[in-house]
């Protein structure tokens, strides 16, 4: 029975074999690696990944698709909303399952055994919440490869002083090295979305700057709340109520401030005024 894409789940199924091959090549799965696929759908990407890995864990919300996926002998199916999945616990469970199968996790190039590789065609309507949910679990993640709306990826990898640079750019670039690795046109899907898509590679930084994530998020939120105005109208007023010991130029717009300066400001706010 043919599965009818459900709008409420934002389902657009990848059908282009050339694009699928290109994505698999970009991910470069190796036998034994612990990998999780979000939103496997009709298993277009799932099948070649499972063949190369030997075993794959998938997270699928649609119960009809989850039922079909459970018939695949190389899959472990987590039927859940991905925003409810605890990736720390999932990493521990996958390690235990690997051991029970008599296997060992294979280290990715330069990576650490026991961490997850996460891939998927993310539902465009909740892609940003998923990215921030995974940010909370970054300590157990080796790398991420996601297909997203191209406009979102443009914002993720944007440089300062560009129109795409914003909150998403700062919060993700602080923690990941990212690159846009592949363009995916609408006709590669069934049904075709009304937007262009792309694939992004996200590799957690080995030694990220230590910062209070909630404080950094608040600083960036306030800064970009009036992005067309100089920061003295938004972040400047916010900073007046908070003691800190760091020169920070508020005679700029939010998009002109590089990631490293936002991080340094959040660190200074956390430390408080100089003694």
What are the SSEs and their pairings?
Layout: E1 13-14, H1 17-27, E2 35-38, H2 46-53, E3 56-60, H3 63-69, E4 75-79, H4 87-100, E5 116-121, H5 127-135, E6 141-149, H6 150-156, H7 167-173, E7 176-184, E8 189-190, E9 197-204, H8 213-223, H9 235-239, H10 259-271
Parallel strand pairs: 2-3, 2-5, 3-4, 5-6
Antiparallel strand pairs: 1-8, 6-9, 7-9
Helix pairs in contact: 8-10
Instruction: Indicate the CATH class of the largest domain.
Output: Alpha Beta
Structural class: alpha/beta
Helix amount: 25-40%
The CATH homologous superfamily of the largest domain is termed: Vaccinia Virus protein VP39
What fraction of the residues are assigned to beta strands by DSSP?
15-25%
- CATH fold annotation of the largest domain: Rossmann fold
Largest sheet: 7 strands, mixed
Total number of domains: 2
Strand line-up in the sheet with most strands: 4-3-2-5-6-9-7
Rg, Cα atoms, Å: 20 Å
Give the count of helical stretches. Answer: 10
Could you say which overall geometry the principal axes of the C-alpha atoms support? globular
Instruction: Give the CATH architecture of the largest domain.
Output: 3-Layer(aba) Sandwich
Q: Overall pLDDT, averaged? A: 91
Q: H/E order of the elements? A: EHEHEHEHEHEHHEEEHHH
């Amino acid at each position: 029975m043919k599965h009818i894409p459900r709008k409420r789940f934002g389902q657009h199924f990848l059908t282009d074999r050339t694009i699928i091959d290109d994505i698999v090549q970009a991910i470069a799965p190796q036998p034994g690696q612990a990998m999780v696929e979000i939103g496997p759908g009709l298993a277009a990407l799932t099948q070649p990944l499972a063949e190369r890995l030997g075993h794959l864990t998938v997270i699928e919300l649609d119960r009809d698709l989850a039922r079909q996926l459970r018939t695949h002998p190389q899959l472990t199916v987590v039927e859940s909303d991905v925003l409810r999945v605890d990736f720390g616990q999932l990493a521990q469970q996958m390690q235990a399952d690997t051991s029970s199968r008599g296997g060992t996790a294979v280290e990715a190039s330069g990576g650490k055994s026991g961490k997850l590789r996460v891939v998927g065609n993310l539902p465009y309507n909740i892609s940003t919440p998923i990215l921030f949910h995974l940010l909370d679990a970054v300590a157990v993640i080796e790398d991420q490869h996601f297909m997203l709306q191209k406009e979102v990826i443009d914002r993720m990898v944007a440089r300062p002083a560009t129109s795409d640079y914003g909150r998403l750019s700062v919060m993700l670039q602080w923690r990941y090295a990212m690159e846009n690795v592949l363009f995916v046109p609408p006709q590669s899907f069934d049904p075709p979305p009304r937007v262009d898509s792309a694939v992004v590679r996200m590799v957690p930084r080995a030694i990220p700057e230590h910062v209070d994530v909630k404080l950094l998020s608040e600083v960036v939120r306030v800064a970009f709340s009036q992005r067309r105005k100089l920061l003295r109208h938004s972040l400047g007023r916010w900073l007046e109520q908070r003691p800190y010991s760091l020169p920070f130029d508020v005679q700029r717009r939010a998009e002109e401030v590089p990631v490293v300066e936002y991080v340094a400001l959040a660190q200074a706010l956390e430390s408080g005024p100089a003694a």
